[in-house]
Every structure is written in C-alpha cells, then in structure tokens.
Design a protein that fits this description.
By secondary structure, this protein is α+β, with helices and mostly antiparallel strands. The protein has 5 helices and 14 strands. It has 2 domains: about 190 residues, Bira Bifunctional Protein, Domain 2 (BirA Bifunctional Protein, domain 2, 2-Layer Sandwich), CATH 3.30.930.10; about 45 residues, SH3 type barrels, CATH 2.30.30. The structure holds biotin. The site of biotin has 21 residues, from helix 1, strand 3, strand 5, strand 8 and strand 9.
Length: about 240
C-alpha cells in the first residue's frame, strides 16, 4: 500500500484537523494524520483523550466508502477494532479483547481507544474520520487506574512507527475485505473477541441503578445484546448503559 501520512508536530486533535482538511481540499483515500503531540484529544461521549509525546500514538485516517449503508455503519467500527486487536496480537499483547463499542483492552485494562466520525450522504456512509489513540510506551497512568500501555502489558518498549504500520496494514486489509463481507461476517469474529462475553457482569443504567446481565453479542445495527435476569435478551445503545465490571 502507498502510504499518505501527514505528520504534525503538534495539534489539538487529529480528528478535528483531518475533518477540516477534508472540508477544504480533496483528500486522498486512506490519508493518515499523525500528531507527535496531540494537545486536546477527543474521546467518546465528549470525554477527553490524554496522550504523552513520544510515548503514545495519536492518529486519524480518512476513509471513503461506497455502498456502506448508514444502518450498517457499525461495520466500520468492527473492522477497525478487529484490525487493532490483530495488530496487537502480533506484538504478543496478552488477553486482548474489545470492550464494546470502542475500547481495546489487555486483561481488564484499556490500551487503545477509537473515535469514528462518519459523514452520511443520503442512506449511505460517504466517508469516515477514524481516530485511534494507543498507549504504547507509557510506564504509569497516575489518575487512570483502568488504563495501561503495550509496554506495561508486554514487558518491552515498541517503536511508535512499527505499531502505527502494523495497525494501518491490518486496517487497510480489513477495508479491502469489507467490499465482499457483510455485517454478519464481521460480527461473528467481532463477537468472539468481546470483553466479558457470556459471563455475568454488573451494568449501570441511565438512572444510575446497577443490575446483573450477560453480554451475548451485537445486534444487526451494532447495539449491545445483553441477557437480563429474566432471561430476555435486550439491545442497548451506548448512552443507555455502562459496564461496571
Ligand atoms: C475513546 O476511547 O473515548 C476514544 C479515544 C480516541 C482518541 C483518538 S487519538 C487520535 C484521534 N484524535 C482525537 O482527538 N481522538 C482520536
């Protein structure tokens, strides 16, 4: 693959930078924006994303699509998550899983996060700005007890470049495959890699109440399917519940 990488010394957010660029000019498909120092990283649900210069990877990818229906847009997230865990497995990261919908874990610690911003045109996805933050060589996360890095989990440092290239290669391969795969092909593999699948977990609902339920899989539009105590399997959206443990 020909790589088109824009390297920035510093920026507020690579997703924001890339979105503005796409609005201003013609951006080649699969263009990557990489920031050495991302100063105001954005996460899911309006959260921030912290990174450290020289130790973390923060980048965004522009991907245009033809024929991905808007209702199938979770396919993009599944392809990206699976690409990241494949790359991490090649580095020997132990107990890799996907915490639905966008966290990549080793054991029960988060090592990477994904922020996908899709632009729709009618009933299809026109393009996505896919932002990925990976903790590579950090040795401590003072105020984030649930965070870890590849180095902490594998036991050795990695070059930021080699991690970047492994993730990009896996991701571009997955996008290639996506032209022939459908939602359920991807979903099967995705479900096999879900964090806490088939075991009783504690969730919190919108009202702040805790309840026990079992993660069973993903619905046809990317919702989380959980089995509640009365044995009913119900779909939930990201804003509707939080996995506590
Ligand atoms: C999350 O876990 O909530 C998602 C975190 C996504 C962070 C990445 S870092 C590169 C890209 N630019 C951003 O501002 N956010 C994403």
């Amino acid at each position: 693959v020909v790589l088109n990488i824009i390297k920035l010394n510093a920026t507020d957010s690579t997703n924001t930078y890339l979105k503005l660029l796409v609005n201003k000019t013609n951006v080649v498909d699969q263009t990557v924006v990489l920031a050495e120092d991302q100063q105001r990283g954005r996460g899911q649900m309006g959260n921030g994303w912290l990174s450290r210069k020289g130790q973390s990877l923060t980048f965004s990818v522009f991907k245009s699509f033809k024929g991905v229906m808007a209702e199938d847009q979770f396919m993009i997230s599944m392809a990206v998550s699976l690409a990241i865990i494949n790359a991490f497995k090649t580095f020997g990261l132990p107990k890799v899983s996907i915490k639905w919908p966008n966290d990549i874990l080793s054991g029960n610690k988060k090592v990477a996060g994904i922020l996908i911003e899709n632009v729709l045109e009618g009933a299809t996805v026109k393009y996505s700005v896919i932002g990925i933050g990976i903790n590579v060589n950090e040795m401590e996360f003072p105020s984030l007890p649930q965070a870890s890095s590849l180095k902490l989990e594998i036991g050795k440092s990695l070059e930021l470049e080699e991690v970047l290239h492994a993730v990009l290669k896996n991701m571009f391969d997955k996008f290639e495959l996506m032209t022939t795969q459908n939602f359920s092909d991807l979903r099967n593999v995705y479900e096999q890699n879900l964090f806490r699948k088939d075991i009783v977990s504690v969730f919190e609902n919108k009202e702040g109440q805790h309840f026990n339920a079992i993660i069973k899989g993903i619905s046809g539009i990317g919702e989380l399917l959980i089995e509640t105590e009365n044995k009913a399997i119900e779909p939930f959206q990201i804003k509707e519940l939080k996995l506590i443990y």
